[in-house]
Amino acid sequence: MNIQIFGTKKSSDTRKAERWFKERRIKFQYIDLREKELSKGELRSVAQAVGGLEALIDDAAKDGYAVALARHTPASMLESVLMENQQVLRQPIVRNGRQATVGYAPEVWKTWE
Predict the structure, then answer these.
(1) d(CA 56, CA 79)
(2) Rounded to an integer, what distance in angstroms lies between the CA atom of residue 111 and that of residue 96?
(3) CA 12 from chain center: how many Å?
């Protein structure tokens, strides 16, 4: 397994995901989204795995303007809006190769073991 966890230390779900993998002694790579954003290829890969770009948007994000912008952007332009406003992405984003989850999803991670 090649697990990557994208998130921020302020996100409680990201911390819970880290703890879940540590408790099972599963090695993972943590990427802080405040320091290094998702690349366009990573964003596309995750979106494809979770069912589209709309599934990546966190309606509870603190930047309400960016959430509204993302929600009201036409589908053809949504990728570029999310690339510019990654603070509205649901966290954590957990990848295992081509598989990915958004949010805290231990029931899916168990199937990866």
Answers:
(1) 11
(2) 11
(3) 13
Token pair recorded at residue 72: 């009201």
Angle CA(71)–CA(11)–CA(60) in degrees, nearest 5? 25
Closest CA to 70 of 92, 51, 91, 85: 85
Task: Report helix angle 40-50 to 75-84, nearest 10.
Answer: 130
State the Cα–Cα distance between residues 70 and 56, nearest whole angstrom.
10
Query: How many CB atoms lie under 10 A from the CB of residue 33?
Result: 18
**Reported confidence tier of residue 112, pLDDT bands at 50, 70, 90:** confident
Position 1 scores a pLDDT of: 75
- Residues with Cβ within 8 Å of 32's Cβ and at least 6 positions away in sequence, in order, are 7, 8, 9
Gap between the Cα atoms of 10 and 1, Å rounded? 26
Q: Mean pLDDT across the stretch 84-95? A: 94
Assess whether pLDDT exceeds 90 at residue 50.
yes
The yes-or-no verdict on residue 101 having pLDDT over 90 is yes
